[in-house]
Amino acid sequence: MAANHGKKYREAAAKVDATRAYGPDEAISLLKEVSYAKFDATVEAHLRLGIDVRHADQQVRSTVVLPAGTGKAVRVVVFAQGDKATEALAAGAERVGGDDLAKDIEGGFLDFDVAVATPDLMGVVGRLGRVLGPRGLMPNARTGTVTFDISRVLREIKAGRVEFRADRQGLLHVPIGKMSFDEASIKSNLKALLGAVAAAKPTGAKGTYVRTVTITSTMAPGIRIDLPAAQALGSSS
Questions:
Q1: Whole-number Å distance between alpha carbons of 237 and 168
Q2: What is the bridge-based pairing of β-strands 42-49 and 114-117?
Q3: Last residue of a domain, one of 159, 181, 211
Q4: Backbone dihedral region for residue 226 (phi beyond 0: left; psi -120 to 50: alpha; all else: beta)
C-alpha cells in the first residue's frame, strides 16, 4: 500500500478485500463502514469502459436524472431572452442574461455549476468556449443544455440530473450522492447511472463494453462491484 496514505485510510482499506468484487448491496454497506471523512463526503461511481475515445463512433456522453438527487444545491445560469428569460427565472435559475451574462463570465464570473442556453443565443455563448469548455460548463445540445424547453431542463437539473462523459482513458467518474444518503438511495442512484451508461453504448464499441465498476467516497478506498451483478442492477425495471 502506498506509503503516502494516512493511518485512517490504511485502516479503511484493510477492511476491503481488493482481490474480490462485491455485490451492490454489500459494496454500499461496506462503503458506509469504511468512509471516515468528518464531512458529508460525495459518493462516486467509477466505470472503466471498453472503448477507444479517439474514434468518433466510440464516444460516451449523456445525462442521467438520479432519483434520489445529488445531495447538492445546483447553481444554474441560463442564456435566454424575452419570455424564455422569464421562464428561466421562474424555474429557479440563479442568473439569466445574454451579452451581459457573457461579459460577466469573460470577466471571471464562474459561480455556477451548469450553464443552459436557448439555441438563438448560442452565437453569444460560442465566444465563451475557451472559458467554459475546459471546465465542462459549455452548453451542449447532446446533453440537453441547449434547448427551448427551459422549465423541464431546469427542473431535471435541480432534481439531480448529472452529465457523464468518458475521459481519454475511457473512464467515467460520476457523483451519485452523499454519504448521508441511506443505502437504498445510493443504490437507486447507482442503478439509474448503470442503466443510462448501458443506453449510451456507442455503435463502435466492440467486445466488453463495461469492464469494471467501482464505488468510493471522498478520501475512502474504492470497492469493486461484481460486474454481472452491476449489469443486472442496471437492466432491472
A1: 32
A2: unpaired
A3: 159
A4: beta
Query: Any alpha helices (H) in the chain, and if so which ranges?
Result: 7-13, 24-34, 83-90, 99-106, 122-126, 129-132, 150-159, 183-199, 227-235
Digit-coded pLDDT (tens) for 45-104: 999 999 998 999 999 999 999 999 999 889 999 999 999 999 999 999 999 999 999 999
Q: Tell me whether residue 8 is in a domain.
A: no
Residues 100 and 149 in one domain: yes
143: CATH: 3.40.50.790
d(CA 118, CA 86): 13
Range of the domain at 142: 76-159
Whats the size of the chain, residue-wise? 237
Distances (CA, A) of 25 to 20, 86, 104, 164, 231: 15, 44, 46, 23, 14
Residues in a beta bridge with 212? 48
Distance CA 101, CA 129 (A): 14
**Does the predicted TM-score (pTM) go above 0.85?**
no
